[in-house]
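subagent[fold] <- orchestrator: predict structure for attached chain, return tokens only, no commentary.
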Amino acid sequence: MVSATESVGPFTLLRLERGELEPGVPGQFFMLEAPGRVLPRPMSLCQAPHGELAFLIDPIGPGTRALCALRIGEAIHVLGPLGNGFDLDLSRPLLVAGGIGIAPMPYLAAALGDPPAILGFRTEHHAEAAGLLPGAEIVVEPRLVTELLQDDPGDVLACGPEPMLEAVRRRVPRAQLAWEARMACGYGACYGCVVEIDGRYRRLCVDGPVVRDAA
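subagent[fold] -> orchestrator:
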């Protein structure tokens, strides 16, 4: 059930009552199905305060707009956590995100003790979402997040559009990358989220979203 909604720049932070659901590992995802919609939408967990699960949503299509239009008290079907999250056994974590790729970073930052972060956005309006990660370094197009990566950036954990992930991986081959794709089922049955990574086809719902052996 919806407990609250908040505007974060052009995005919506959808807060749900947790019930019996566990938040899982940062980087995993949940399938959210708005009332009246045929297919659910995969969403990374953004925050996990006591008794709640919060998801940052970009209203770019009918499904995501339906999720953002939900009102307090409305029921919603949620399945998860699903997929593979980030490896948190790190000595020098650095979070890197682009656009809506910021979605899993607040939960990830909380799990890692608020490490440094680099965030990139298309516009200043989108960059308002950086308030979810206080203290992060921010760039706005045409600047790129890779411009702020040092020669030895540490243990990079990244989420964002494919061109950004590829650029990060070229700079940091061992970076953990959370890939994005459309999904219909969330558990490997429909093959709707298959992407090619390094010449291999992966079902991101079961092989990812964090693909650990992509490099």
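orchestrator: received. Logging for downstream: The chain has a mean pLDDT of 91. The longest helix spans residues 162-171.
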